[in-house]
Design a protein that fits this description.
There is one protein chain. By secondary structure, this protein is α+β, with helices and mostly antiparallel strands. About 25% of the residues lie in helices and about 20% in strands. The protein has a domain at about 1-45: YefM-like fold, CATH 3.40.1620. The protein has helices spanning about 15-25, 75, and strands at about 1-5, 30-35, 40-45. Helix 1 links the parallel strand 1 (about 1-5) and strand 2. The protein is elongated and about 70 Å long. The relative contact order is 0.14. The mean pLDDT is about 80. This is Antitoxin component of toxin-antitoxin stability system, DNA-binding transcriptional repressor.
């Protein structure tokens, strides 16, 4: 991970940040942003997820009832007996 130092003059910061964002976009490089030699933040490329593919763990769950089925009178009253 490369570093982007923020201890430079404020006037040069936009060009440094702009070049870092260009590298991040083109090469998928990550940066650690430092202020006074201390880690301030990580600048990482956004990872897009394919929302159409099923979740590997959640897709294995099997439900053997109709979750939209209305509760019976007995099931409603179970919570009242506390």
């Amino acid at each position: 991970m490369k570093t982007l130092r923020i201890n430079e003059p404020v006037s040069t910061l936009p060009s440094s940040l702009s070049s870092a964002l260009a590298k991040l976009e083109e090469k998928q490089e990550s940066f650690v942003i430092l202020r006074d030699g201390k880690s301030l933040a990580d600048l990482v490329p956004h990872r897009w997820k394919d929302r159409r593919s099923p979740h590997p763990i959640m897709s294995a769950i099997e439900i053997h009832y109709d979750p939209t089925e209305a509760l019976t009178e007995d099931e409603w009253s179970e919570g009242d007996e506390a």
